[in-house]
Design goal:
This protein is α+β, with helices and mostly antiparallel strands. Helices cover 20% and strands 22% of the residues. Strand 7 and strand 8 form a beta hairpin.
């Protein structure tokens, strides 16, 4: 019974110690069959799920617009195609005395969310967003009600790096 590292693509190998579920047996076809069945089962599960369960957006962005027009907050695509959704990055903040800032922030899905040619990140609760302030060269957290002013050059913040 021999184990070898799993190779994602030529030249990219996951070490044995880090690939518990990705290891396969060199001499045993049963392992290959089990892996195929598991993958097929997962594909069936995701295929059966409604598309809306694969889409996500921060609070306040779904359905009807929940924000005043003067905030100029772009529409969040809903549903986000799964191949685009997996590309979005998440930033987790912690250690702030304003505890409601200690949450995950999801990258804005389109360039309409960008400020000063940089991506922004939106809190799951829909109250705050994280952006890069070019004037002070710092990442800042602001309330979403200030989005249009920040997009126009202001650098408001509840917190800054």
């Amino acid at each position: 019974f021999w184990l070898k590292p799993f190779e994602l693509k030529p030249g990219v190998v996951i070490p044995v110690a880090h690939s518990f579920l990705l290891l396969h047996c060199v001499q045993c076809s049963w392992c290959h069959m089990a892996a195929i069945v598991i993958v097929q089962t997962l594909l069936v599960i995701f295929w059966i799920l409604p598309q809306s369960s694969l889409a996500f957006c921060p609070a306040g962005f779904g359905g009807e617009r929940d924000f005043p027009a003067e905030w100029q907050i772009p529409d969040w695509p809903n549903p986000i195609p799964p191949d685009e959704a997996v590309k979005l990055r998440i930033v987790t903040l912690g250690g702030f005395t304003k505890s409601e800032l200690n949450e995950e922030f999801l990258e804005g899905p389109t360039s309409e969310f960008w400020i000063a040619n940089r991506e922004t990140y939106w809190q799951a609760s829909g109250k705050y967003f994280l952006y890069y302030c070019q004037r002070f060269r710092k990442w800042r957290v602001a309330g979403i009600d200030a989005f249009s002013q920040i997009k126009n050059g202001e650098c408001f913040a509840y917190a800054s790096d």
